[in-house]
Amino acid sequence: MSQFIRWKVEVLSVISNSELQELDLFDLISERHGLVRSKIENMWNETHDMHISGSEWYIMAKIYKHKRTMAYINKHVNISRQAVHKFVKQLNDKGLVDIQDVEGNKKEKSIQLTALGESCYLESKQHKALLEQQIIDIIGEETVHKLIEIMKMDWQIE
Q1: Fewest CB within 10 angstroms: 88, 107, 113, 135, which?
Q2: Euclidean distance between CA atoms 72 and 81, whole angstroms
Q3: In whole angstroms, what is the distance from residue 50 CA to residue 46 CA?
Q4: pTM of the predicted protein model
Q5: Alpha helices (H) along 22-80
C-alpha cells in the first residue's frame, strides 16, 4: 500500500487535478501515458542496478518473442533512425538483445531479446500488472475494462 501512496504523490506532483480538468482529450491521453510510462520505468530503475530507458523498453516490447530487423524496428517505432540504432546498441551492451547479420543481406541486422532481455521484459510486465491493479482499485474494474475496450476500438484516424 505504501508503494501506491508514493505513486499517487508522484502523480499529483506532476500535474494537479484542476490542471487535468482543463486539458482536451489528446492532452489527457498524452499526460496519462507519460505518467504511466514514467511510473513503470521508475518501478524498474528503483529496484535494479541496470537502468533501462523508456525508449529501450519500447524497443524491447516490439521485439518480444520475435526476431526483428532494424528496418522493421525503424518503421514501427516513433523514434528517429539514429536513436533506434543508439538504443539497440545500448541494449546489446547491457546483454538484453542479440544483434545478428541477416542472411543474404550484408547491410541488414536482426535483433532479438536474449534470455536476460526476456526475463527483464517479463518482470516489467509484472510491474504493469501491479500498476493496473492499483488503477482498478481506484477507478473500478468495470471502468478499466471499458477504457481498454475504447482504446482498442478503430477510431478511423490513421
Answers
A1: 107
A2: 11
A3: 10
A4: 0.79
A5: 25-45, 54-63, 70-76
Every domain of the chain and the residues it spans: 2-150
Q: Which residues face 105 on adjacent strands?
A: 102
- Are 121 and 60 a contacting pair, CB within 8 Å? yes
Q: What's CA 36's distance to the chain center, in Å?
A: 9
Q: Is the pLDDT of residue 57 over 90?
A: yes
The residue assigned the cell 538504443 is 87
Closest CA to 56 of 32, 99, 85: 85
3-state secondary structure of 146: helix
CATH of 2-150, one of 3.40.50.880, 1.10.287.180, 1.10.10.10, 1.10.645.10: 1.10.10.10
Query: What is the pLDDT of the chain when averaged over all its residues?
Result: 88
